[in-house]
Amino acid sequence: EGSKVAVLVCVGVLAPLLLSCAYVRRGFPTSLSRALRASTLEATSAASSVGGGEGFSYHCTWKVLPSRAVIASLGASIIVFMLIPSDADALAAWACYFTSKGCILGFCFLGLGAACASQDGRGLDRSISRRAFFWRARLRMVLCGYTCELVEAAVIWLPQCGGLYWASVMELAPLCSDRSSGLPGKLYALCGCNVVAWLLLASAALLILALQQYISRRTALAQ
Predict the structure, then answer these.
(1) Alpha-carbon distance 108 to 101, whole Å?
(2) What is the pTM of this model?
(3) What's the distance, CA 35 to chain centroid?
(4) Which of the ends of the chain has fewer CB neighbours closer than 10 A, N or C?
């Protein structure tokens, strides 16, 4: 049993972390490069068409669209859940889930983003080389993926650390119980503890997706 946990941790935790580090160090997001180059050419053409000279300032931004962030999170969850063995140790399985999904999201955010160019007065930062920009881009998106999973872990585990426990169809402590005369007893009589539990799960899932979408949207890469 101990060897199975060790193998699971190595494959599901250490390997994604090493892969993320290697990608930040050596990887090259060709899609990001092509999209930003196209936006730069678009902005330059716009400057020429309006007769803009040295005073024309353009700003290229790489953003993750909200719908794509949601699709990436749902798809990564399904993939990771399918890969984790059903008989795995619970703590090791959760650690593998959060770490592997964070790694996948970092790659997805780079691949699913969209570039745009606008005239906003800032323009390109000529002090930053293209290689340094792409290194920072990879680092920010990889950290964004792990930050999204840190938020997901907090939403899932903090209520349980606070005492939330789904015991059975008759008890969802401390919100619903057939042995209580207060609000938990009223909820049990009204709809049952299973319905309350599923409503909580749905609310938690929507909250996680909303927070991850917000984090990915705020992690814009500017050149």
Answers:
(1) 10
(2) 0.77
(3) 22
(4) N
